[in-house]
What we know:
By secondary structure, this protein is an alpha/beta fold. It is about 45% helix and about 5% strand.
Amino acid sequence: MELWQLKQMQSLPLEAKISKSQQRIREWYEHWDGNVYVSFSGGKDSTVLLHLVRQLYPDVPAVFCDTGLEFPEIKEFVRQTENVTILRPDMSFKKVIEKYGYPTIGKEVAECVEGARKGQPYRIRRFDPNYKPIFNVSKWAFLLDAPFKISASCCDVMKKSPFRRYERVTGFKPIVGTMAVESRLRTQAWLRTGCNAFENKRPISQPLAFWLEKDIWDYIRRFNVPYSKIYDMGYQRTGCIFCMFGCHLEKYPNRFQRLSQTHPKLYEYCMKPASEGGLGLAAVLDYIGVDYEFRGEQLGLEWEEDTG
């Protein structure tokens, strides 16, 4: 696939996107004789995906991984959804960061830091300012001296591993709600395989890959699809509460400043040092220069602003 093809598909009207996504879903369902499931996070993207899939195949199961890192509002919404299988990881987030390290900056940077600290030549080379890969991580070289572990292993341990175990037991193939616009890595994945990666080592379908954020909300409004009320509290992304990936790019109030006002107990727990029973995120955020303290300005609700 070519980048221009992705851009062209992203510019299509919602009606055309729905039709193309339904086609991808049918192809996936038929190829695997109906042995498929929807990876359901309770967030808006997977909510739209589940609605799309069940318009065609009402009995397709949804599978949710309860990592302990989800907002209470997300868990409540999942409990209200029919035919959802609940998975759980073998290790808590606190154990993951103790063993592997904190998810910091982004997946690529965290992997490079972790690998470079282990002496991996390729990872070390990525921090050379004269090295010119597609994505140079030399600006984050100071993290090599951080007084804490850094890793991208959290998602593998807490989400991917339970889902893969489910797939081995059931033989079901996943349908996920990721979109290419979310990251460079997800764009590259679409360019390699398109929406349905039948030949991947782990076959996976991403029928919303060419959708945009606006399409998701337009679909929700058009079809009156129920969604988690966490979005009415101003959150635009509702993944793992304590994940720090991408927080350095957010404008005020960032996810942690907002968390201090909407869920103060969770905020206190994640910021407290590990020696005091917390997760120690404050020290990490201080090190990478991210402000996590709320400064008193009124919180805006993005959903209300977007819809007028």
